[in-house]
Amino acid sequence: MPQFEFMKIKTAYISAGSNMGNKLENCKNGLESIADSGNSSIMAISGFYATEPVDYIDQDWFVNAVARIETALEPSALLEELRLIETRAGRVRDAIRFGPRTLDLDILLYDDIIIESPDLIIPHPRMHERRFVLKPICDIDGKTMHPVFEQDMESLLDLLDESAQRMTLC
Q1: Is the overall model pTM greater than 0.90, yes or no?
Q2: 68 is known as an active-site residue
Q3: What is the largest CA-CA distance in the chain?
Q4: Residues 88, 94, 101, 152: which is the catalytic one?
Q5: How far apart are CA 81 and CA 79, in angstroms?
Q6: Which candidate, 28, 40, 44, 45, places its Cα nearest to that of 70?
Q7: Which CATH architecture has domain 3-163?
Q8: Residue 91 — pLDDT band, cuts 50, 70, 90?
Q9: Measured between alpha carbons, how far apart are the two ends of the chain, in Å?
Q10: 54 — alpha (psi -120 to 50), left (phi > 0) or beta?
Q11: Mean per-residue pLDDT for 79-104?
Q12: E strands within the chain?
């Protein structure tokens, strides 16, 4: 029996991204690993999108998706688990911020909690600027609210320039 059944369950949105190796499989395996941990259940997964890189653009396109999970883990423990999954997938953190990676797992939202610490910021600080985050969340539930901006994801997505951050469904 999964251990989270006896604890208070929270809802979180997790993004998955990869632009090295088999990008689609890296993302799928990363999300499956969240469920395999026994601490979380996948409730919904968006479509998988081929997405143009942002910020550091001299690299291959990414595959990105978002999952809504239910978890018994507190935010810092969930972050620790995601980092472990990334490491097992071959992720190496180097000096190039936003650079190539085999797997990137980020906590986008955790219930309606707002956290600002040196190790963790929730909601994700750039999610409202990222089509490759907002569109997949809208695939799951566009009425999900951003707890800082107090706007739903569809409204935030509508604010972005459609010609920027090209993406196509895989």
Answers
A1: yes
A2: no
A3: 47
A4: 101
A5: 5
A6: 40
A7: 2-Layer Sandwich (3.30)
A8: confident
A9: 35
A10: beta
A11: 85
A12: 10-18, 40-45, 49-51, 62-71, 104-110, 115-116, 121-122, 145-146, 151-152, 167-169
| Under 8 Å between Cβ of 125 and 119 | no
Residue among 151, 63, 71 nearest 143 (CA): 151
Catalytic annotation, pick one of 68, 106, 130, 139:
106
Residue 59 is predicted with a pLDDT of 87
Catalytic residue list contains 104: yes
Note if 101 is an active site residue.
yes
3-state helix, strand, coil in the chain (%, to 5): 30, 25, 40
In the residue annotation, 152 being an active-site residue is answered as no
In the numeric block, which tokens belong to residue 140? 């799951």
The residues near 61 (Cβ < 8 Å, ≥ 6 apart) are 19, 50, 51, 52, 53
- The pair phi, psi for residue 63, each rounded to 5°, is -110, 130
pLDDT tens digits, one per residue of 112-157:
999 999 999 999 999 999 999 999 999 999 999 999 999 999 999 9
> 132, 153 in Cβ contact below 8 A?
no
Give the model's pLDDT for residue 28. 98
